[in-house]
Structure formats: structure tokens, C-alpha cells
Amino acid sequence: MWFKNLQIYRLPAPWNITLEGLDEQLARKRFMPCGSQDPESRGWVSPLNDERLVHAVGGQWLIALGVEQRLLPPSVVRQVADERAEEIAAQQGYKPGRKQMKELREAVQQELMPRAFTRKRKMYAWIDPEGGWLGIDAPSQTRAEDLLEVLRQTLDSLPLALLRTERSPVSAMAGWLAGGEAPGNFTIDQDAELRSVADEKAAVRYVRHALDGEDVRAHLAAGKLPTRLALTFDDRVSFVLTEKTEIKRLDFLDVVKEQIDDKETDAQALFDAGFALMSGELRQLLPALVEVLDGELKAPEASTDGAGSAAAAGDPPF
């Protein structure tokens, strides 16, 4: 169990919910396969294909969203509807009108939907209830929303917010590149993207290239800002940090994975060992990342004149 990406969210620390309580609430929306006319179905599944919807190892929790989609491309619907329209035109002597074509496409879609292939996938989320972290293995915040939307619908309360830091990743990464090194236990690797502020299409990408040269500093001086930067934390975890405080290309290095007994053959034991190591590393990485970004962004104090607004409290929770 190793995440490849991480969309980072904050919960209260500690989060006031029990393991049993979370499992019971997730059970309200267990995954059910698509019905004959359903284009998509979403619901909670067991991470380990057993009865538990929350898998717990060492106080760390793992949940999984099951998604099933029927694969019926619009082009197929149009093609069949056009063929039917030609038959109708031959019978009635003129082409179907716009309204008739719309009804024909709807009828074709309804006819073909039960015969469409389905595709299933899982999305995982890691929860650290004591530390107040929720991380979703998704390549973008938009994809993470697939899971969060169902989570909001399922739980009685979800006091969740995106991670915000006092210093923006763009500003921090620019400073690190200009100085030639990252602070703390972080080191700069060899991949980066710098993008022009004036022209969004103007970008420079470095792949397996030393980033301490004059050319990088020249691009920074010319107004380009880093939107991605490859880093390694404590010689144990490598990743790419983005301007949105996303973590991509997450890779747990051999020094971490070698802690798993390679003689172990039990599938659940291997799964648990991987999840325990991954969550343990993330619990070290995320606070350290927040620290080098000057801490979490503090919401302004609410107005005392009785006219406080939601905006005065910073970003609203999800």
C-alpha cells in the first residue's frame, strides 16, 4: 500500500470521531454496482475486501471509495442514432427534426446502456485522526473531489479544509532554487518547472538536470516562477511539490521499503506493513513541509462587532 500522489487536507487534531463511528457512517453508503440505466455508481468499499470499511493499523486509518462507470461513448450513441435517423427518413420521406433527433438519441442511449461495459476503480484516503491529516491518493484536487463529495454526503460532519501555509510553495521554491538548497532535511533533486508570470504558455522544464546552475537563476531573475520542484525528504521519501501544495510522484525509497520482511508471504501482513511504513513517513514529512513553508496559515480573528462574516474566518471548511 503505497500512495503515488497526495492531496493534503486538514482535520481537527485530534478528530473527534471513533473508528467504530466512522465505519458505521460509511456503511450508510456502501458501494452498489451500477443499475441497468446508471452511468455511474459510487460508494465505500473495504480496502482489504473484507467487511471493514475502515482499515486501521497503529492508529492510522485507510478508507476506499469504489467507483463503477458504464463505458458508453457519445460517439457510439450518435452513430447508432444517425443510422436510425436514415431509416426513418427513408420511411417518412424527410429527415427527422431537431426534437425528434434528441428523442432518438435518448432512446438509443437507454437501449445501449445495459449492454455497455463497466470499469471499476478504487480511490484511497489516509486519515491520521490524532495528527489531523487526511491525504487522498489522487493526481489533482479535482479528482480528489470525487471522494470528498461522497464523504460529505456520508458523514454527519466533516470539518475539513485544504492545507494552507503562511508562505506559498511558489515563493518558497523560488527562494530555495535561488539559494541553491532547500532548508531542513529537504534536498533539491533534478526536476523542476518554471513558468512565466506574464505569459502562462512560456515555461521551462528541467528533467534530470542539475538545478544549481546560472541558467536557473537567470530564469528566476527574468520573472519565471517555479510551479513544480522535485525534492527528497530525509533521504527517505522523494516527491514533486507543486504550486498548489500538492505532492506528486511520491516515492518511498529503498531505505524505507527494505524494512518490510521480504520473506513474508501473508498478503494482509504485507499490506499492513506497507501502510504502516507509508503513514509513518507521511506523519514525519507533512509537519516538516509545513515548517519550511513557515507554518500553517492562521485564519483572521472573527470580528467582535457582531457583524463577523464567513470570509473573516478564512477559507470555509468543506
TrEMBL record:
Keywords: Cytoplasm, DNA recombination. One of its GO terms (molecular function) is double-stranded DNA binding. Signal peptide: none annotated. It is found in: Cytoplasm, Nucleoid. GO terms for cellular component: bacterial nucleoid; cytoplasm. InterPro entries: RdgC. GO terms for biological process: DNA recombination; regulation of DNA recombination. The keyword Cytoplasm applies. Belongs to the RdgC family. May be involved in recombination. This is Recombination-associated protein RdgC. It comes from Pseudothauera nasutitermitis.
